[in-house]
Design goal:
With about 230 residues, the protein is an alpha/beta fold. It has nine helices and nine strands. Strand 2, helix 7 and strand 3 form a beta-alpha-beta unit. Helix 6 (about 75-85) runs parallel beside helix 9. It is globular. About 40% of the residues are buried. The structure holds 2'-O-acetyl adenosine-5-diphosphoribose (OAD).
Length: about 230
C-alpha cells in the first residue's frame, strides 16, 4: 500500500494505460494507435492544414470508441482518493477521454486537451462541448467567424494546456504517482525527474517506463488490478 500522510500533497499523472482496461487503446503498445496511424498525418498542425477531413476522421473514430467506454477500478480508486484528500490531490492526465470525470473525479487537469470538446482554429471563442462524429462526405464544421472547428487537442508541436498550474502543483507535491504512461512524451516525461528530494516518486503499470530511473518505487501491474489495493489497502 502507498502510505499517504495527513500532510502529503499528491500529484497524480495518468497516461493511456489507466484507460486500457476500459477498452481504449494506448498509443505505443502492440495494437496501439501509433502502430496503426502516423501521428504526423492525424495529430499535428501540419496534418490539420494538409487534410482536416483525415484529422476529423481520426478523432471521430476516437470519439466513437471513448463514448462506449466506462471507468475501470483505477479511475474509481482515484476518484475516491480525491474525495479523501480533497485539494491535497492534483490529478493531471495526458488522456483526452472523460473516464476520470465519469468515475467522479471533480478536478481533472487535461494537459493534452479533451476529446469531447472542440474549438475554432481562427477566433478566440472558448472551447465548447462537442460529441459530434464526422462522417465523410459530410461538411466539416465551421465557426460563425468562418474559421474551421478543430478538436480541442494538444497536437505534436503545440504547447500543452494548464502548464502554470501543473508546475505549481509539482513544486508543492510530496508524492508523485505516475500511472500507465510510457515516459517518452515531454513535458510529462520529465515531471518525475523534476520532483527533487522532497517527494517520493512512484510508478504503476505493467512494464517499466522509459524514464524508470526517475522513480523511487515501482509497481509492475495493471492499474485496474492493483491501484485500489495500493491506495486503500
Ligand atoms: P503510451 O501508449 O505511450 O503508454 C501507455 C503505457 O501504459 C505503457 O507504458 C503501458 O505499459 C502502460 N499500460 C498498458 N496497459 C496498462 C494497464 N492496464 N495499466 C497501467 N498501465 C498500462 O501512452 P502515454 O504515455 O499516455 O499525446 O502517451 C503519452 C502521449 O503520447 C499521449 O497523451 C498522446 C501520445 O502521443 C498526444 O496525443 C499529444
Amino acid at each position: 500500500m502507498i502510505a499517504i500522510s495527513d500532510t502529503d500533497r499528491v500529484f497524480v499523472l495518468t497516461g493511456a494505460g489507466v484507460s486500457a482496461e476500459s477498452g481504449i487503446p494506448t498509443f505505443r503498445d502492440a495494437g496501439g494507435l501509433w502502430r496503426n496511424y502516423r501521428f504526423e498525418e492525424v495529430a499535428s498542425p501540419e496534418a490539420w492544414r494538409r487534410d482536416p477531413a483525415l484529422v476529423w476522421e481520426f478523432y471521430s473514430m476516437r470519439r466513437r470508441v471513448a463514448s462506449q467506454a466506462k471507468p475501470n477500478p483505477a479511475h474509481l480508486a482515484l476518484a475516491r482518493l480525491e474525495h479523501r484528500l480533497r485539494d491535497r490531490l492534483f490529478l493531471c492526465t495526458q488522456n483526452v477521454d472523460d473516464l476520470h470525470e465519469q468515475a467522479g473525479s471533480q478536478q481533472v487537469m487535461h494537459m493534452h486537451g479533451e476529446l469531447f470538446k472542440s474549438r475554432c482554429d481562427t477566433c478566440r471563442r472558448p472551447p465548447f462541448p462537442d460529441t459530434h462524429v464526422y462522417e465523410p462526405p459530410a461538411q466539416l464544421p465551421r465557426c460563425e467567424c468562418s474559421g474551421q472547428i478543430r478538436p480541442h487537442i494538444c497536437w505534436f508541436g503545440e504547447v500543452p494546456f494548464h502548464l502554470d498550474r501543473i508546475s505549481r502543483a509539482l513544486q508543492e507535491a510530496t508524492v508523485f504517482l505516475a500511472i500507465g504512461t510510457s515516459g517518452v512524451v515531454e513535458p510529462a516525461a520529465s515531471f518525475a525527474a523534476a520532483m527533487g528530494s522532497q517527494a517520493r516518486t512512484i510508478y504503476v503499470g505493467p512494464e517499466p517506463p522509459a524514464n524508470k530511473s526517475s522513480f523511487s518505487e515501482t509497481y509492475f501491474a495493471k492499474a485496474g488490478e492493483i491501484l485500489p489495493t495500493l491506495l486503500e489497502g
